[in-house]
Amino acid sequence: MRNLIFLIIILSLLSCNNNIENRVVTTVNVDGRKIPVIHFDNLPDEVHEMGVSDLIDDYKVIPLETKEECLVGNTRVFLFKENIIVGTQIDFPGPVTCYMFDDTGKFIKEVGGRGAGPGEHTGYLLSSMLPLIDTNMFVLSFVTENQLFNSNAEYVCDIRQPFELMGNAISYSGDIWYSPGSLTGHPNYPRDSVYLVIHNRDGKIIERINRLEYPPSPEKGFTPAIGGRSLYINDDRWIIYSAGNDTVYSISGKSIVPEYILDRGVLGHDYNKIVEPESVIGKYNFSAVAETDDCWIINCSEITEADINEYRPGRWGGSYNMRDELAIIYREKNKSVRIEAFDDIYELADKRNFNSQFYFNPGNTLVFALQAPDIKRKIAEKLGSTDIEPDHRNRLEELDSRITENSNPVVFIFYLKDEFDL
Description:
4 helices, mainly beta, 42% strand, globular, 5-stranded mixed β-sheet, disordered N terminus, 6-stranded mixed β-sheet
């Protein structure tokens, strides 16, 4: 009897240990605090296709007003409060043109100007629009330029960064600024040796948080430099994740606070190690794109094809094909799901619009624009089918009536649920 009880105890302990090892979320002590660790190797193997209607509370479809003074071509789209900001190329490779529209699509004004004067920019791409959490202002980033605008989209000032090619600059109040560096690949620029630089708007460094891990010498071979940084807002705090450092931080004053850890496991890239170039195929880059009351949402971007070569000694480049999916990971339920979200409302948008990190905006929204001619063509094809639900037909006919072949793009906004029941 005693041996039987002992055996039961041993089996119970082994079972508990196995359960812990297989959990997607565990915890670890960091600076006296327990923080979550997300283990990607323990995610389910199966990727489910899921209609976006299961992920959202609401959505809007907004045709942009079409006028001579605000013609829009290919575009990046962002939300500021209820207004829509677009960046469009009119004469590539010249500077990008930026417009603001209201929440009905009515044109308000051009934002900033193209050129090298005060309030003007030379960048060919609007790479991001990020709000200042404690103010009614926002920052437009034009790859190498960051400019601050007030709530009326009036230019306030340029935000100088301590190093070149840093990309986004973010702030809470506009007095202290945060510029992320780069943590993967060989350091070719000063920005490649810092995790985060805290500075004033003139670019004077207040605090510098250095990069800690580097690959061996470039002469020793290829190291993945795939994946950048992700930024989002949660509980009025900036949350930052940079590929090459598995910890996700919140930004507080002149420091960063660990919030959770992304354990890449064998699924993730081997950053800051020398590997064979073809080994990146099948590997994932992870981006922290949002979190809700009960879960984290992580973009998982798999390399499906790669053509990589050493174009000069120690310098590597190439092209990649990617497949995006989302991992939804519950905080408390020991539950997670991998999904490829798709357009089950209009059936007009590509999967990438719902799964790529590029379409997530602060405030847990997905925002993108589709060109009017493409929409008209797809609607005509679908309305020509006899196998279409009446509600779907009505939605398509209503949208079709609001645009012509020569209309400006249509903006789609999807508002994520606070809690998912998947």
